[in-house]
Amino acid sequence: MLIENAENNKITITVSSSVDKFGLQRLIDYLKYLEATSKSKAKQSDIDKLADEINSSWWQANKARFIK
Asked: Is the pLDDT of residue 28 over 90?
């Protein structure tokens, strides 16, 4: 594996083709998450509350499909 700084505040990571693609995709997804949230000022408690509200709303709209 090779990690090097590139131009424009970017980092280049080179890995062997033998690396597990599924694991590599999970790592890339995590890096995208870190990049997307790097400037967020949200608190974890606010995020958890929003997630609970979304899950509750989704369940109310969809529970009839699962409970007969």
From this structure: yes
35 domain residue, yes or no: yes
Can you tell me the distance from the alpha carbon of 52 to that of 46, in angstroms, rounded to the nearest whole number?
Answer: 10
One-letter amino acid at 11 equals: I
Domain that holds residue 29: 2-63
Please give the model's pTM, rounded to 2 decimal places.
0.58
In a domain, 68, yes or no: no
Reference 13, options 28, 29, 33, 23; nearest CA is 28
pLDDT of residue 6: 81
Number of domains the chain is built from: 1
- Concatenated DSSP letters of 13-55: EE--TTS-HHHHHHHHHHHHHHHHHTT----HHHHHHHHHHHH
